[in-house]
Amino acid sequence: MKILVGVKRVVDANVKVRVKSDNTAVDLNNAKMAINPFCEIAIEEAIRMKEAGAAEEVIAVSIGPTVCQEQIRTALALGSDRGILVETDDHVDPLAVAKILKAIVDKEQVDLVILGKLSIDTDNNQVGQMLGALCNYPQGTFACSAEFKEGKIEVSREIDGGEQTVLLDLPAIVTTDLRLNEPRYASLPNIMKAKKKPIDFFSPADFGVDTATKLKILSVEPPSERTAGVKVESVEELVDKLRHEAKVI
Amino acid sequence: MSVLVIAEHDNSELKSATLNAVTAAEEISSDIDILVAGSKSDDVVNAAAQVSGVTKVIHANNGCYENQLAESVAPLVSDLGKNYSHILAPATTTGKNLLPRVAALLNVAQISDIVEVKSDDTFVRPIYAGNALATVQSSDAIKVITVRTTAFADAESGGCATVETSDFAVDQSSAVFMGEKLSQSERPELTSASIIISGGRGMQDGKNFVLLEKVADKLGAAIGASRAAVDAGFVPNDYQVGQTGKIVAPDLYIAVGISGAIQHLAGMKDSKVIVAINKDEEAPIFQIADYGLVADLFKVLPELEQIL
């Protein structure tokens, strides 16, 4: 079995981003970049499947500028076997990402695709589902567990109000939620070894995908800020304020 | 211009998230239809027909839609959707699972989690966990959109839409529904509650959530939790409020033992009134709280329960 995992380069989750003063975008100059946390969970899940003997090969794919190699190298250090970078400096919409991934799925004859449920920059939560549609494969989104069962994969999903379990034919798409696993850290020897693992380079055009977008960003603005209110001294004062000042209880 | 709204339901009840999506739809066009895709879902259709502003309810009543798997419903929605300029669904886990699949079948973009309608092609949506708001303009022929429910009021009742049935059926067996574990609770749902009391890592143990429950019972509140409390195993994941959990905006949000990580604030900072109870006076949660109480939650919660 071959598993494809998506690796997106995003701003580090601990960085508090600010909007540029000209309101065109968020300011990422000199910001620390990292693998999207949900992609880390996807890599971990794929590697565990390989370690359990359920998969032979894990391919890590990233789409973006040349520096995305850094995130692919991390995925290789964590245990992926090889990397694919689809190089572009353009902003690539989720639908175009899904089209590129479909081309790779077809080319590599992948049995399972594991992606993060969303990336913490654009917060779209779309690519896995779109890839499912384009490939006509079933999807197990927001997964909190994934297990192979007799040539299929059983996925439990985080849904509003609880959990849902679905049984999917392979090939399938799985998108990760937080509880699926706890990603490991790369060890130094593995980081060194990862430098020798292969990365193939392509462009979106190699897959016949046009990255022109139908969605134009007109402006990016900071949200209205809340300001700190008052400190109360006691529970009585708090309840009094809630009853008579805020009038919410 | 016409809008198709996808109903959120469980085959017996129309969920209020649908009403928020209808309100967003009303800001786009006055020509609004609702799709109820389900099985034995007549009660849902009746409820949907009474939503004010709705012209027509399309009822796709077929066993294949019973569990509303995206693999089954997406082909239906993309087929019906060709007749509309906009397709809207609430940004619930059901809507988020379904609509990108629909958009890809229609070869158009999907716009996630809108919080404002600027015009029929321009919408505002949060990015970077709500640390920025992007205004986006779509030039796609069909705009496929999920709606952040807390950003739009409930559509009123009092409508009398016509009902039409759709015989469109989808024969797929690549995804099979195996079961569902839903948390049973007498309390209001997190996303529609007017008061929420949430616990964080400061609760120290899942057992201590009983202290929150007692206060919640007095207030008729829903109970939430920070990701830290979920990660620590205190409570199940469906309690989670934040960027990676549920987005809420109640009239009153009481954060107990929650420090106020960015990712938690992203899920609750649009609440009308925020109360923070934390023994660490430096906790970032106090910077956005309307009322802060620096105190030990294990003393405060029993006292609060007494007074209410």
Rg of chain B, Cα atoms, Å: 21 Å
Number of strands of chain A: 15
Parts with pLDDT < 50 across at least 5 consecutive residues of chain B = none
Strand order of the largest sheet of chain A: 11-10-9-12-8-1-6-7-13
Number of helices of chain A: 6
Tertiary shape of chain B? elongated
Largest sheet data of chain A: 9 strands, mixed
Mean pLDDT of chain A: 96
Helix/strand-derived category of chain B reads: alpha/beta
Would you write up a description of this structure?
The complex is a heterodimer of chains A (249) and B (308). Chain A is of the alpha/beta class. Chain A contains six helices and 15 strands. In chain A, the strands form three sheets. In chain A, strands 11-10-9-12-8-1-6-7-13 form a nine-stranded mixed sheet, sandwiched between helices. In chain A, helix 2 links the parallel strand 6 (57-64) and strand 7. In chain A, helix 3 (94-108) crosses helix 4. The longest helix of chain A has 15 residues, at 37-51. Chain A is globular and about 65 Å long. The N and C termini of chain A lie far apart (57 Å). The model of chain A has no long low-confidence stretch (mean pLDDT 96). By secondary structure, chain B is of the alpha/beta class. Chain B is 25% helix and 28% strand. Chain B has eight helices and 16 strands. In chain B, the strands form three sheets. Chain B has a seven-stranded parallel sheet, sandwiched between helices. Chain B has a five-stranded parallel sheet with strand order 13-12-14-15-16. In chain B, strands 6-7-8 form a three-stranded antiparallel sheet, with no helix packed on it. In chain B, strand 6 and strand 7 (122-127) form a beta hairpin. In chain B, helix 3 crosses helix 4 and helix 5 (209-219) runs parallel beside helix 8 (297-307). Chain B is elongated, with a radius of gyration of 21 Å. The N and C termini of chain B lie far apart (50 Å). The mean pLDDT of chain B is 96. Strand 11 of chain A pairs antiparallel with strand 11 of chain B, so a sheet runs across the interface.
